[in-house]
Automatic annotation (TrEMBL):
Belongs to the short-chain dehydrogenases/reductases (SDR) family. This is SDR family oxidoreductase. It comes from the Bacteria. Residues 8-188 form the Ketoreductase domain. It comes from Belnapia mucosa.
Length: 244
């Protein structure tokens, strides 16, 4: 894996903390230069970059609202200038405002779809021309068990993640002959601030008896990046709560 990613350039959206930060660090450990995207958490993103550089890796932090097309285009251009053209894209940015049917607003719904789903479309469109020209690319979308289950966040979140998995299959089918794979990881109840703060205070309903870790999500992400034969798939990571 280390040799295969040496010289590769990766972008991780929402890479300042949690799952995104773990993926960014793991990509750097495997030899990739990593762009750590953030929207507001500048200090956290800088800390991820500093940790990568302290380990001898190359990284940069870059601010962009990935639900905005112009911001995404400018981000991709700056990464290409500073690190090189993007070979690996991890669409991890997401929000999870907890809402019931009664208090879910149109603004909540639109913003969740924009950040969780539209952003993956915008970032993928931005990196695809270069990947297609080089006939090599790896795209991994971070979905959720909520794409296929009831979930605890709300129907807006379900819809955004189900759409993300449909987007994954659609791109995979159309890029399969061009050396570009597109897959998804669907974690459930990973020990992050988002989970602890409102979705699940304890791991009582997880058969394995504990929360998953961000590093375990990163391991699955790296497996998908390293496997040239696997495309259009969603890998569930749920501690035994659900089975495909």
């Amino acid at each position: 894996m280390s040799a295969s990613l040496t010289g590769r350039i990766a972008l991780v959206t929402g890479g300042s903390r949690g799952i995104g930060a773990a993926i960014a660090r793991t990509l750097a450990d495997a030899g990739a230069a990593v762009a750590v995207n953030y929207r507001a958490a500048s200090a956290e993103a800088a800390a991820v970059v500093a940790a990568i550089e302290a380990g001898g890796g190359r990284a940069m932090d870059i601010q962009a609202d990935v639900s905005d097309g112009a911001a995404v285009a400018a981000m991709a251009e700056e990464i290409a200038q500073r690190l090189g053209p993007i070979d690996i894209l991890v669409n991890n940015a997401g929000i999870a405002p907890i809402r019931g049917i009664e208090d879910l607003t149109e603004e909540d719904f639109d913003r969740t779809i924009a950040v969780n789903l539209k952003s993956a479309f915008l970032c993928t469109q931005a990196v695809l021309p270069g990947m297609r020209a080089r006939r090599w690319g790896r795209i991994v979308n971070i979905s959720s068990g909520a794409a296929r289950g009831a979930g605890a966040v709300g129907l807006h979140y379900n819809a955004s993640k189900a759409g993300l998995e449909g987007l994954t299959r659609g791109y995979a089918a159309r890029l399969v002959k061009e050396g570009i794979t597109v897959n998804a990881v669907a974690p459930s109840l990973i020990e992050t601030d988002m989970v602890r703060s409102g979705i699940a205070s304890t791991p009582a309903r997880i058969p394995l008896g504990r929360f998953g870790t961000a590093e375990e999500v990163a391991q699955v992400t790296m497996m998908l990046i390293g496997n040239a034969y696997m495309t259009g798939q969603t890998v569930a990571l749920s501690g035994g709560m659900a089975f495909n």
